Amino acid sequence: MDWLDPRGRCGNGEYVRIAAICSALAAPLLAVLAVDGMAQGVRLMALAALWLLAGVMWVVAIRRAHDEDYTAREAYAWMGGPTLMLLVWITLPAMGVFPHELILWASYGVGMFLCYVGLYAVAQAKEGSRPNRYGPPTLQRPTPLDRAKYRHMRKSPVP
User: Fold this and answer.
1) Dihedral sign (CA 60, 64, 69, 70)
2) How far is CA 126 from CA 13, 64, 122, 146, in A?
3) Which end of the chain is more exposed for a tag (fewer CB within 10 A), N or C?
4) Which residues pair with 132 in a beta bridge?
5) Predicted model pTM
6) What whole-number distance in Å separates Cα of residue 98 and Cα of residue 121?
7) Is-contact 56 24, C-beta < 8 A?
8) Is residue 1 helix, strand or coil?
9) Straight-line distance from the first to the last Cα atom of the chain, in angstroms, rounded to the nearest whole number
10) How far apart are CA 113 and CA 82, in angstroms?
C-alpha cells in the first residue's frame, strides 16, 4: 500500500483518480447525513467514514505536494478547504452544533478560497519528471525496482 505512505510521491493522474474515488464514496454518505430522522448511530458511522476519506485524501495530498518537491505543510493547498468545510458545514451540524451565521460565512469564504488554490495547484502542477528527495519520478509509473532504489531517500511526512 505505497499509496498510503505519506513519505512518497503522487502524480497528478493518481491524485485525481483517488480524489474521484473518494468523492464517489463520500456522496452517499453525505446523502445519509442530509436525511432527517436518520438514526444517530447511522449518522455517526457516516460521519466517521467521511473523516476516514478525508484522512486518505490528506495522505494523498501530502504525497502530491512531495511530487512538486514541497514539504508536507504545503498539502493545505489541496486539502485545507475541503477539511474546513467538512468540519464546519457537515460535522458540527451532524453533531447538533449549529455555528453562528458569521462563522458559517467566514468558513465558507476561506474554504472556497482554499479549494480554488488547490484546484489551481492541481491544474498548474508539473508532473514529476525528475527524482527528488521524496522518491522516483512520477511521469511514468515507477517500477518496484525504482521504488526500492529511492526508498532510503524518503523523508518523514512532516519535516
Assistant:
1) negative
2) 11, 11, 9, 20
3) N
4) 135
5) 0.81
6) 32
7) no
8) coil
9) 22
10) 10
